[in-house]
Design brief:
alpha+beta
Length: 113
């Protein structure tokens, strides 16, 4: 019984280590970035409190060419929700070069006066 618990613990740690090693986000291609900028749009600019806000979006593209948002990191909760709403499960023309490719896209929203 003791050996079984030790084996399960070792297997769990090994699985976590393997999955963490595969998560090296890459920069999206220019074509994908342009599509994402078009999807985001400029509607959020009217709701912005500050003149400039930023976020980092971590996402992948599935086999159906849909963006799957993994996380959005921002100080502004409204911006996080806006980006998730505008991008999650939206179709793009990009097909990933390998399955499970993870992208990191910095987003900068600047209020135009």
């Amino acid at each position: 019984m003791k050996n079984l618990k030790l084996l399960i613990l070792a297997l769990g740690l090994f699985t976590v280590n393997i999955s963490a090693a595969n998560m090296n986000p890459i920069k999206p291609t220019d074509e994908l970035r342009i599509e994402i900028v078009e999807l985001i749009g400029s509607n959020y600019m009217n709701e912005m409190q500050a003149d400039e806000q930023g976020a980092e979006a971590l996402f992948t593209v599935n086999n159906n060419k849909e963006i799957i948002i993994l996380s959005v990191d921002s100080d502004d909760d409204l911006l996080e929700g806006y980006l998730k709403r505008k991008l999650n499960y939206k179709k793009v023309d990009h097909r990933p070069s390998k399955h499970g490719e993870i992208y990191l896209l910095p987003v900068k929203m600047v209020k135009q006066l």
